[in-house]
């Protein structure tokens, strides 16, 4: 299967601290990757480097075969890369649907005017339908529940028409039923062709979702394999799951 994302020997330092050390990762088109590791292992640093929030010190990041290491985050978004954030921060005073107009205008369509506003709103509604939030499209974002905020975060990301979606703890703080609902949405999005890297601490969710699980510890990948292989790996158990 063709590679969509390649992380090649990436190192990232913060002053004297090495957050990532020669990390390499290959993600195929359509894959579902679970990214795990204890707090401080480098997960957030890695996805920040992938999405362009942070600049790498050494190595390279390739997307669809192109070296994007020097590309700004908004350019990566236009190229087909989107991410969600652990703490959703919508425009709380705006409606749910108007929150989606921002990525649609700045990443997909360019300036929206009266000639195309109706079709763009229709596209926003479709994104909300895909995350099961269409019935709340006219609600104020500040009035949403925690799980609805997670859905809005996903809707904003997929409105940018990504080929790669990086989800940063999209189920944090949710009840078991809500976790299952978000998982179902992610699996449905993947079935439409979106490649997904999921950073998550809820191991049952990671096991159900992932085709491969990558485990980071102290800025290095210590295991990259099938879910059962990763979970039974002694080094993973010591670093993340405990003995």
How does this model look, in words?
- This protein is of the alpha/beta class and 243 residues long.
- The chain has a single domain, classed as Rossmann fold (3-Layer(aba) Sandwich).
- A 6-stranded mixed beta sheet has the order 6-7-8-3-9-10, sandwiched between helices.
- Strand 1 and strand 2 form a beta hairpin.
- It is globular, with a radius of gyration of 18 Å.
- The mean pLDDT is 90.
Q: Which parts are unreliable, with pLDDT below 50 for 5 consecutive residues or more?
A: none
Kindly name the structural category: alpha/beta
Number of helices, where a helix is a run of at least 4 consecutive DSSP H or I residues: 9
Please state the second-level CATH architecture: 3-Layer(aba) Sandwich
Binned, the helix content reads: 25-40%
Sum up the structure in keywords.
single chain, 243 residues, alpha/beta, Rossmann fold, 6-stranded mixed beta sheet, 4-stranded antiparallel beta sheet, 39% helix
In brief, what are we looking at here?
The protein is an alpha/beta fold.
Task: Show the helix and strand layout.
Layout: E1 3-14, E2 17-28, E3 32-36, H1 43-51, E4 58-63, E5 66-67, H2 73-79, E6 81-83, H3 96-109, H4 117-130, H5 146-158, E7 164-168, H6 176-191, E8 195-199, H7 203-209, E9 212-217, E10 220-225, H8 227-232, H9 234-241
Parallel strand pairs: 3-8, 3-9, 6-7, 7-8
Antiparallel strand pairs: 1-2, 1-4, 4-5, 9-10
Helix pairs in contact: 3-4, 3-5, 4-5
């Amino acid at each position: 299967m063709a590679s969509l994302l390649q992380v090649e020997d990436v190192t990232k330092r913060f002053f004297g601290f090495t957050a990532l050390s020669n990390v390499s990762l290959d993600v195929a088109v359509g894959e579902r990757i679970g990214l795990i590791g204890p707090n401080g292992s480098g997960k957030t640093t890695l996805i920040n480097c992938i999405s362009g929030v942070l600049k790498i010190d050494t190595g390279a990041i390739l997307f669809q075969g192109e070296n994007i290491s020097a590309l700004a985050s908004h350019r990566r978004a236009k190229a087909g890369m989107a991410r969600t954030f652990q703490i959703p921060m919508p425009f709380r005073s705006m409606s749910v649907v108007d929150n989606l107009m921002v990525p649609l205008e700045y990443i997909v369509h360019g300036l929206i005017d009266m000639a195309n506003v109706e079709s763009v709103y229709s596209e926003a509604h479709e994104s909300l339908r895909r995350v099961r939030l269409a019935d709340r499209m006219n609600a104020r974002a500040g009035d949403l529940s925690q799980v609805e905020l997670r859905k809005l975060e996903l809707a904003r990301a997929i409105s940018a028409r990504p080929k790669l979606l990086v989800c940063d703890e999209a189920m944090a703080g949710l009840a078991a039923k809500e976790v299952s609902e978000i998982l179902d949405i992610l699996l449905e999005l993947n079935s439409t062709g979106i490649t997904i890297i999921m950073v998550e601490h809820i191991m049952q969710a990671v096991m159900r979702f992932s085709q491969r699980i990558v485990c980071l510890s102290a800025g290095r990948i210590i295991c990259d394999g099938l879910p059962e292989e990763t979970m039974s790996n002694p080094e993973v158990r010591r670093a993340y799951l405990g003995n």
